[in-house]
Specification:
single chain; 424 residues; alpha/beta; Aspartate Aminotransferase, domain 2; 8-stranded mixed β-sheet; 3-stranded antiparallel β-sheet
Length: 424
């Protein structure tokens, strides 16, 4: 079957024979067919929908959702989700300082995986934000950390509760690992407690949440919502909690961590939004068992994240290369102006924090096409959705004040009014 999918003999969405029918046809035990189907599911080749049977996946599990997009040729690009280059620090001096340090004290085999000063500074910042104590590890970005944590605790077939709409890269990696995503609705304050409870009662073994600057909706977990979610998690202490704080350094809203009520947890912070996507480094902390598993497996693979990168980040931290309040204010002014302009035109828009605005629409394909024709490329909601209704995402990073009105006019013309409230 896998070869047939690869050659095109079995097409996307094609229904596969029932287990017993195929077992009879091949002259094998039904358990053998069941095991083969399970392997195919774990490899992301097929998907099963209970009594509706098994089908070839519409697209391979390794196909990134970012491929679901329109080409921005001739249009202003509000789709790719990049930070504003003008708000990123120049890296020349930082990289030169890291290279000079390596010339004097080269990192050799047997050195600590994490630069001691980086671990110390990262832990101090986490302590200041009320994150429970724990060791520190370094990975090649947030998604690398999340993948390592998931594989440290879960097996193919396990369910993971995820925000819906949510981060497309996370929604990609879950099926690629042979895991199953269970969608959890969100509003401007983050995951809805009743939906988290439902997902955990249905057997989800892990929950991934975004603390601030949620992608694509801009949601941020406030104090009251954090208390509600901690209460839910306290009733499921064996669930693995993963918190993604990728907005650290560009968001001025306080962090309200959820960690502390489950046996296993991590909180991840990357440098991508504050210092640039190509600076592939994230720090994470968590319970001793989880961090020990992550670091142990990392040692068997890449070994460590380059100390040249670690020293570059340290140089930036020592010099306060980024003013988080100024960066947050810059994104905030653009984001809030766009949300306000859209609402003035009768368009429901969401964007409490970060650099993105989410607009629910009745027909995202049509909205994307009409906006492209008007000169604006936006991200289709299909990149971020599991079961939630349609929408489009606009990244405010490329916008100047003079752009706000024209963008809002174009969105209003392309979409028309949509109901406000939750994203479902």
């Amino acid at each position: 079957m896998e070869r047939a999918v690869g050659t095109g003999a079995l097409g996307p969405g094609q229904l596969l024979p029932p287990l017993r029918q195929l077992a009879e046809q091949l002259g094998v035990n039904p358990n053998t067919v069941a095991a083969a189907y399970r392997v195919l599911r774990e490899r992301g080749v097929i998907e099963t929908a209970g009594r509706r049977g098994s089908r070839v996946r519409p697209r391979p599990a390794s196909t990134p959702r970012e491929w679901i997009r329109v080409e921005a040729a001739g249009a202003r690009d509000l789709a790719t989700g990049n930070p504003d280059p003008a708000l990123l620090p120049p890296l020349g001096e930082a990289l030169a300082a890291a290279a000079a340090r390596a010339a004097k004290h080269p990192t050799l085999y047997g050195a600590p995986e994490v630069a001691p000063e980086l671990a110390e500074r990262a832990r101090a910042a986490l302590d200041a934000d009320g994150v429970p104590g724990g060791p520190v590890a370094v990975t090649s970005g947030s998604l690398d950390a999340i993948e390592r944590v998931l594989t440290a605790h879960l097996r193919p077939g396990d369910a993971v509760a995820v925000e819906d709409p949510g981060w497309g890269s996370l929604l990609d990696i879950i099926p690629a690992l042979g895991l199953r995503a269970v969608p959890v609705g969100v509003d401007d304050d983050g995951p809805l407690p009743e939906e988290v409870e439902r997902a955990l009662r249905q057997g989800a073994r892990a929950l991934v949440v975004t603390d601030r600057a949620q992608n694509p909706t801009g949601a941020a977990i406030g104090a009251a919502r954090a208390r509600e979610l901690r209460k839910v998690l306290a009733g499921h202490p064996r669930v693995l909690l993963i918190e993604d704080d990728h907005g650290h350094g560009i968001v001025d809203l306080p962090l309200h961590p959820l960690a502390g009520g489950t046996d296993h947890w991590v909180l991840v912070r990357s440098t991508a939004k504050a210092y640039g996507p190509d600076l592939r480094l994230a720090v994470l902390t968590g319970d001793d068992v989880t961090l020990d598993r992550v670091r142990g497996r990392q040692r068997l693979g890449p070994g460590w994240v380059s100390h040249l990168l670690q020293e570059t980040v340290l140089w930036l931290w020592r010099g306060d290369a980024v003013d988080p309040k100024a960066v947050a204010a810059s994104y905030g002014e653009r984001r809030e102006a766009l949300v306000r302009a859209l609402r003035e035109r009768g368009i429901a828009a969401h964007g409490r924090s970060g650099m993105n605005v989410w607009v629910p629409v009745a027909d995202e394909t049509g909205a994307v096409a009409r906006l492209l024709q008007a000169g604006w490329a936006v991200a289709p909601g299909a990149r971020f959705r599991v079961a939630s209704p349609q929408g489009v995402r606009l990244t405010v990073s490329p916008l100047a004040p003079a752009d706000i009105g024209p963008v809002a006019d174009a969105v209003a013309a392309a979409t028309g009014p949509a109901p406000a409230g939750r994203y479902d």
